[in-house]
Amino acid sequence: MLNGFKAVVYKEFIQVRRDPATKFVFVIPVIQLILFGYAIDTEVRDVPTVVFNADRRTASREFLAKFDSTDVFRVTEEATDAAGVRVLDQQNAGHGMEKAMAGRTPGRITRRA
């Protein structure tokens, strides 16, 4: 079975060498792969985030500081209660801002850690 596949590949290689116009069938996708491989960046950065810190102890504040120091998340607001997260989320949506992500640290997180 593999011998038949090799024969077809060899036949197609000879055909491509004979007809220069068919070289573009192989060259253009390779160029696109190289260009788009460097041009398209799918890394997520600077996601606006609303945080509700229910614990408010030192460990949870340090956790949120580390969370904010990454390039991925940008803490834009800190809500005082769970209802405040919904209000801030609705305000951001009303002003045409991009949708913010909301995060919550549960109470007693320092005891669990």
Summarize the structure.
The chain has five helices and three strands. The chain is α/β, with parallel strands linked by helices.
Spatial order of the strands forming the largest sheet: 2-1-3
What is the structural class? alpha/beta
Measured between the Cα atoms of the first and last residue, the distance is: 59 Å
Please tell me how large the radius of gyration is. Answer: 27 Å
What are the low-pLDDT stretches, counting only 5+ consecutive residues below 50? none
Give the count of structural domains: 2
Helix content: 40-55%
Describe, in plain words, how this protein is organized in 3D.
The protein has five helices and three strands; from the N terminus they run H-H-E-H-E-H-E-H. The protein is of the alpha/beta class. The protein has a three-stranded parallel beta sheet with strand order 2-1-3.
Record the SSE blueprint.
Elements (H helix, E strand, L loop, with lengths): L1 H17 L4 H17 L7 E7 L4 H11 L4 E7 L2 H13 L6 E5 L3 H4 L1
What are the main properties of this structure?
3 strands; 113 residues; rod-shaped; 55% helix; single chain
